[in-house]
Specification:
single chain; about 425 residues; mainly alpha; 14 helices
């Protein structure tokens, strides 16, 4: 006897099984979350060189493409020299990037280590100097009563005791971490190995970028509906442009600010110039909060080492931030994010709590991509809805109100 299958009931059965499977997966994630995270970590560890390769190739591609275009227009113009141009561009880019990294490490790291060591060793002297400076200020200003002086002396003794205890406990902690570093040397070497393997992977990715892109497009075209495929291509290109332009632009902007900070601090003979400039440059990569995150600890550092120059340092940082926010930043970055301030704060808090410093750095461009996609989806749905309403009515007043409503909603973004 032949059984006839009903398409309607087959569809219902399929969705029932799919919903049941999703529910079971969610239950497993809730009760076996540790096992799930452990499995994800093993997978990520296994493909770590490939992940490094994608990251390195993504960051190096703008430089590779720029050098390749220069060669194409000025030196190697023939079509058959295309593979040689790409190989030479990758080689030149690698030399430039690794030379810059080595030069930065050779110049900055020894001075930073020396500054930190000097700061730790001379902390009692710095605290005494700060104490004497404040006491001298209070003595030169009799309008400040004795109660304020007594309160400061009492608080300073507590602070000095706390800081000196911290410094005393820091050395054994450093020795402990050195032991852990020694024990974890194998893991460190594994990380270095993954990085260099990732660089090799990045070379293959850069050399055959167009081939991999074509393969991805073919796969997407084969398994996705035409409308979904077209949307993916357009939105993906737009998202990639937002993300890459922001990261490259912000890196250049922060590098310039760090160098300017170092030059100015050297001119005004403010101590620990390299360490302070490094902190200012790194934290400047974080949108909105970056300048404040970098200014507070560096100002405290100057207050400890050279109290009389603290106000000068604060003025220098303020001028640098104004220059970056009003002149340099807009010149380099433009308005690439087009993201309201509230959502910038939200993305920094959200991704920063999840992924730390790198979450604060990458969270803003990631959220800018999400925001742009949602904005375009909402605007498109509003326009479709307005067209449907226009077909159903001939009332000119209602048509005008509908168009005004759409314009108001678009302006809200």
């Amino acid at each position: 006897m032949k059984v006839k299958l009903n398409t309607k009931y087959n569809t219902i059965a399929f969705y029932t099984v799919a919903v049941f499977a999703v529910c079971m997966l969610l239950i497993l994630l809730c009760f076996k979350f540790g096992v799930f995270v452990s499995a994800i970590r093993r997978i990520l560890t296994a493909i770590s060189p490939v992940i490094w390769g994608f990251v390195i190739s993504y960051l190096m591609w703008p430089l590779v493409r720029k050098i390749e275009l220069i060669m194409e227009t000025r030196v190697l113009k023939k079509k058959k020299q295309e593979r040689f141009r790409r190989s030479l561009s990758i080689l030149v880019s690698s030399v430039v990037v690794f030379s810059a990294i080595i030069a930065l490490i050779a110049m900055a790291v020894p001075q930073i280590i020396e500054s930190i060591t000097t700061l730790i060793n001379n902390m009692p002297e710095y605290l005494n100097s700060l104490y004497n400076s404040v006491i001298s200020f209070l003595e030169e200003n009799p309008e400040i009563n004795k109660q304020a002086t007594d309160w400061f002396q009492e608080q300073f003794e507590d602070i000095e005791t706390l800081v000196l205890d911290w410094i005393t406990n820091l050395k054994p902690a450093i020795e402990k971490y050195l032991i852990l570093l020694k024990d974890g040397l194998f893991s460190f070497l594994i990380g270095v190995k993954d990085f260099f393997l990732g660089y090799i992977v990045s070379v293959y990715l850069l050399f055959s970028k167009e081939t991999f892109v074509r393969q991805f497009k073919k796969l997407s075209y084969a398994i996705l509906p035409q409308k979904v495929y077209d949307t993916l291509m357009v939105k993906g290109t737009h998202a990639n442009k937002i993300f890459s332009d922001f990261l490259v632009g912000k890196a250049v902007d922060s590098l310039i600010i760090g160098m300017l900070c170092f030059i100015i601090l050297v001119i005004f003979q403010i101590p620990n110039a390299m360490l302070i400039s490094f902190i200012v440059g790194i934290t400047n990569m974080i949108p909105f909060f970056g300048p404040f995150i970098g200014a507070i600890p560096t100002a405290l550092l100057v207050l400890l080492t050279s109290p009389q120059k603290t106000i000068l340092f604060v003025i220098i940082i303020f001028v640098l931030q104004q220059f970056d926010g009003n002149i340099l930043g807009p010149k380099i970055l433009g308005n690439k994010l087009n993201l309201p301030t509230f959502w910038i704060l939200f993305s920094i808090f959200f991704f920063g709590n999840l992924f730390g410093f790198f979450g604060m750095l990458a969270g803003v461009p990631v959220f800018a991509v999400i925001y742009t996609l949602v904005k375009e989806f909402v605007i498109e749905r509003i326009r479709i809805r307005n067209l449907e309403m226009l077909r159903k009515t001939t009332d000119d007043r209602k048509d005008t109100e509908t168009n005004n409503e759409a314009e108001d909603i678009e302006e809200a973004f």
